[in-house]
Amino acid sequence: MFVAFPDPAQQLSTMHSLITPRWMIEQGFSGSFARRFWKRVQITDTCWVWVGAKNEKGYGKINQGPVGGHSKRAHVVSWMLHRGPIPEGLCVCHNCPGGDNPACVNPNHLWTGTNYQNRRDSVLKGTNNRGSKNGSSKLTESIVLDIRRRAASGEKQRLIAHDLKMSESTISSIVHRVRWSWLKDSSVDRTASAALPEQTISIPENGRTL
User: Fold this and answer.
1) pTM
2) What does the alpha-carbon distance between residue 10 and residue 18 come to, in Å, rounded to a whole number?
3) Which CATH number belongs to the domain containing residue 86 in this structure?
């Protein structure tokens, strides 16, 4: 794999024409910001990897001014440096060919969209923090599926709630897919079309079919 650290001086010449030193300072960035940014970028033949500080989700971050000032996400800054100011109401999203990489700052792997488009893209790619990926969730996918299976088999919801030390309203919302509606399980979804008992057709001795 090709790996290289770019020359900050050379990369400054590729910046978008609207991103001038004066504009950067007016936006609250320090005069050395662009050079500091490029010193933390590792270019490969796919993603441009941020090797500086990252947040808990793996996104690169960099102080826009002096130490202790406000920080910006690195991929957002990369978009600005290469494409210009971000249109009002839009956010910068990833679309890396090998799967979204939060640390990537390659402008060719970035696009702008609304918050709704960003969330929808995350759901379609399975990168959003829903279900057990959400750190505040007390349930897991296996527990939710087990609740639905038990309810589908005829077990009373209040008994399930008592067993799991949960409220009956929570159990009901899970069973009726008010909560965790995105989680599918074929064995549960087929309960409504369970197999009917076989019919026995008898043939009398006279050969007539009943």
Assistant:
1) 0.55
2) 17
3) 3.90.75
